Amino acid sequence: MEIAIIIPVFNEADALHKNLTILDRCLMEDSLSVNYMLIDDGSTDDTWKVIGKIRSEFKNVSGIRLSRNFGKESAMIAGIQNISADYYAVIDSDLQHPPKHIKLMLDILIDRKVNIVEGVKTNRGKEALAYKIMANTFYKLLYKLTKMDLKGSSDFKIFDNQVADAVRRFNEKNIFFRGIIDYVGFEKIEYPFAVEKRLDGEGSFNTLKLFKFALNAIVSHTSRPLYLTMISGGIFFVLAILLGAQTLYNYFVGNAVDGFSTVILLILITGSMLMLSIGIIGVYIEKIYDEVKARPQYILSDRLNASKETETVNAKNVSNK
Q1: Radius of gyration of the chain from Cα atoms?
Q2: Could you tell me the pTM of the whole model?
Q3: What are the start-end ranges of the H helices in 253-296?
Q4: Is 94 helix (H, G, I), strand (E, B) or coil?
Q5: Of 127, 253, 260, 290, which sees the most CB atoms within 10 A?
Q6: What is the per-residue burial (b if ≥16 Cβ within 10 Å, else e) of 137-148?
Q7: How far apart are alpha carbons 264 and 261 in whole angstroms?
Q8: 44 in the Ramachandran plot: left (φ > 0), alpha (ψ -120 to 50) or beta?
Q9: DSSP 8-state code for residue 196
Q10: Distances in Å between the alpha carbon of 92 and those of 36, 65, 75, 76, 186?
Q11: Mean pLDDT by 10-residue block, N- to C-terminus, for the chain (321 residues)?
C-alpha cells in the first residue's frame, strides 16, 4: 500500500529541504510507504536546484518543473496526473498542514471505507485581519451562490485512486481544486486540524491573490452571478414604471422641474448597475475564451523521476498533456 504525497512549491528554496526532511521523518516514524511528488510551479529562485538535491538524497522523490507559474491549483492537478499510488495526500510545503495527521487521516479513510478525508481548519493561523475578513466573506458568498459549504476547508486532503482518476478527467483551465473534490462526490469525512506556524519565510498568498482566487472559484462553479443582471433589470423596470408615472403626474400638474433630481439619481443608479452587469458578463466571457482555446492546464519544462524501485510516474497522463 503506497501513498503519494503531492507537494506544490513556489519560491521555497530556503525552507524546502528542511521541511521535507521533517515531513519524511514523521511519515517514516508512522511506518508509511510514501512517494513524494514535488511540483515546482515556475519558481524564480533556486527551488528546482533544491529539488534536485533532495532527489539525490531521497530515492522516493519525483519532481516536475512547470515552464512558468501556472498557479497552485494547476500545480496540484499536475502532481496528481504525474504520479500513481493507492492513496494520495495533498499537503503544503511549509508544514502548516501538520504531517502528524497524515497517518490518522489515512487510517480513517481505510477504516471508515470512505474515498476522501478532508482537512478542515479549526483556526486560520496567523493572518492579517483584512485577509481573514475577505476569506470569510468569500466562503459565505460561495455558499449562497453554489451551496458548497467550504468554510474552514483547505487543500490538505487524503483520497483514494478512484477520486484521483476522477480528478484527472477535468481538463478545464480555470480550476478550483477544493471545488472539484466536492463536485466529484464520493464518500467524504471531515478531519479538523489546527494550522501550524510557518517554520521559515513568508507565504506568497496575499489579499490580491485571494481576491483572484475567490473570483475564479465562484465563476468556475456557478453562473448565478449572471442572473444578477436579469434581477437588476427587473427591479429597474418596476422603478421605471413608478418613476414614469410620477413624471407624468408632475407634468400634468405643472411641477415637471421638481422631478429633475430623481431623474439624475435614476440615471446614476442605472448606469452603475449596467456597468456592474457588463463587468460580470465580461468575466464569464473571459473564462469562456480561456476554455475554448483549449490550451493545456500546465506545461512541463523538466522532470526528475524516483528511482526504478519506487518510480510511480503515470506515463499515460504525461503523454496526454
Answers
A1: 25
A2: 0.66
A3: 260-292
A4: coil
A5: 127
A6: ebbeebeebbeb
A7: 5
A8: alpha
A9: P
A10: 12, 17, 12, 10, 24
A11: 89 88 87 89 89 88 89 88 90 86 90 89 66 67 63 81 88 77 84 75 58 65 66 70 69 61 66 71 71 73 65 39 42
Looking only at the bridges linking them, the beta strands covering 188-194 and 116-123 are: parallel
- The one-letter amino acid code at 33 reads S
3 state SS of 99 = coil
Q: Taking Cα atoms as reference points, which of 268, 231, 266 lies closest to residue 247?
A: 266
**35 phi and psi angles, rounded to 5 deg:** -125, 135
Tens-place pLDDT, residues 45-75 = 889 999 988 988 888 888 999 988 888 888 8
Kindly give the interhelix angle for 207-221 and 129-146, rounded to the nearest 10 degrees.
0
- Beta-bridged to residue 160, according to DSSP, are 87
Residue located via cell numbers 529541504 = 17
Alpha-carbon span 80 to 78, nearest angstrom: 6
| Three cell numbers, residue 231 | 434581477
pLDDT tens, position by position, 241-283: 776 677 666 666 666 555 565 666 667 667 767 767 776 777 7
The residues facing 190 across adjacent strands are 118
* Residue showing cell 439619481: 265
